[in-house]
Each structure stands twice: as C-alpha cells, then as structure tokens.
Amino acid sequence: MNPNVDTQALAQAVTQRRATLGIDTQRELAEKADLSPRMVGEIENARRDSYRDSTLFKIDRALNWKLGSSQGVLNGLPPYPLEDHVDTDEAVEEGFDDEDIEGVSAGTNDYDISVSEDRLTFTIYIDRRVGDRDDFTVTALLDVAEEAFEFVSDRIEQSRSQPSELAGMSDKERLEWAHKIIEKFAPLQRRDTEPTPTSAPTEQEKSAAASAATPDPAVAYDDVAQAKLAEVLQSDYTPAASPHAQLDPHNGVGEENQDE
Which one of the record's GO molecular function terms can you name (predicted)? Predict the structure, then answer.
C-alpha cells in the first residue's frame, strides 16, 4: 500500500456517505458516478493504493461532496458534504475554479510528489476552516493560510518522507500562490481593513466623501493580504503595486513620487 495516502479512510468515508444518501448498493453508486462497479468496489474495500484524478472527481460529484474532498480524505482531511439541495454542477464551480482543476489534472495519476497535490491540499484546508462563515476578517483568513502552510509542509512532508514541493518554492512564489488562493475568500469580510471613525465627520469631510469615487474593496484587501502574507512567510519580498491603484493626478503621467 502507498504510505502517502490513507485509502482506508477514503473507503470508510465513501461507504458512510453512500449510506447517508440512501444509495443502497455499490452498483447504484457506480451508475451515479459513471464508474464501473468494480472500481467502486475497489474504492470501498481499499484495494488500491492510488486513484486517478478523474475517478476521485466523479466520486465527489456522485456523493455530493465539494470537489477535492476525496483527495482531501486521502491526505487526512475530513470530506466536505454539500447541502442536499445544492446542484452538483454549481457545487463544482463553487469548490474550485478551472485553473485549480487543470492544475490537479496535470499532476501524476498515482498522486506522486507534485505541486498540484500540495496546492489542492492547501486549498482544501483553507476551505474546511472557512466554510460558509461570514465572520472572518482578512487577518483571520491569512492566519488560516499560515496554518495551511504548516499542514502541507509538515504533515504531508512527514507522510511522504520527502520534502514537500512547497519547500522548493521561493518566498516570492509561495506568497503569490497563497495570495491568489486567499483572494477567493476575500469577499467574505474586510472589516479589519475599514477605518473606525473616532468622531463625527465634518461637513467638508462629508462633501469630499460624497464626491469621491467608490473605492474598490480589493485595494484594501491587496495591501493587507500581501503585507500579512509576507510577514507570515518571513519573506523580504516586496509585492508589486496593486493593479487597482490609481495614478496621482498631481503627478505627471507615468512619473513616480521621489523624495527630495
């Protein structure tokens, strides 16, 4: 058996979920997942030590798990059951975007060491912690990202007895990668990026605020997220200017402020 994955945990999780959904037989699950009955039997009896990406995705859809749950179970995470009324296609779109899916599919079929597996595990970890909560601030989300890095680099690395692909990434690469994934959860809350008023605004301040364009919340998020991730990763990486930033109208076009 492959020591890198827990196929017995997947077998138990699939069998239990099948019973919960009222899918009485392995054949019924096979039809629902568009898999052979033999394959479903091998999954539920842990007869294989690895599975193809496409097989795991089909199991996720058939059991109404968020996409990536089966791989998460193999890596020691609990499955993420979706609400029974959620349409599976919508759940797939909700779980991971096309680039995430393509990244996983580009990995090795037997789930050998690959950055795609680390990326999927990292994303699943964050998703499990965040879930559908609406009380997460940006800082809290980035704290979860720090925990996710520790999970991937420590637990997964130990189970493989080989360094994680994350260990070979530069601080800059890790920062950009994590920032991109965390951005998926940015709309949840940005309360800690909003200034807390200490006194009632003056009429002049009200007028200025009314005439100003509505700021893109991604601007504040970019600043906080990248700074926090750089701190978390103990990186000296200085992120590029936010794409949401606007030119200072008092400066010449394309010119930068310089200290005199």
Answer: DNA binding
Neighbours of 155 (CB within 10 A): 16
Q: 237 and 119: one domain?
A: yes
pLDDT of 150-201, one tens digit each? 666 665 555 555 555 555 666 556 556 666 655 555 444 333 344 444 455 6
The total number of structural domains in the chain stands at: 2
Query: The pTM is what?
Result: 0.38
**Pick from 93, 89, 91, 87: nearest CA to 79:** 91
Closest alpha carbon to 126 in 177, 88, 87, 165: 177
Q: Are residues 83 and 146 in the same domain?
A: no
Considering 27-41, 93-107, 192-206, the range whose residues carry the highest mean pLDDT is 27-41
**Which residue, of 29, 63, 92, is where some domain finishes?**
92
246: Cβ contacts below 8 Å, ≥ 6 apart: none
pLDDT at residue 251, rounded to an integer: 37
Provide the pLDDT confidence category of residue 86 given band limits of 50, 70 and 90. very low
The last residue of a domain, from among 39, 57, 92 = 92
Q: Is residue 106 part of a domain?
A: no
Q: Are residues 171 and 136 in the same domain?
A: yes
Residue 226 is encoded by which pair of tokens? Answer: 């990248």
Distance from C-alpha of 66 to C-alpha of 59, rounded to nearest angstrom: 10
**Which residue from 21, 35, 104 is spatially nearest to 64, judged by alpha carbons?**
21
Would you tell me the crossing angle of helices 171-182 and 217-232 to the nearest 10 degrees? 140
Side-chain half-sphere CA neighbours of 13 within 13 A: 24
Containing structural domain, residue 225: 113-194+218-241
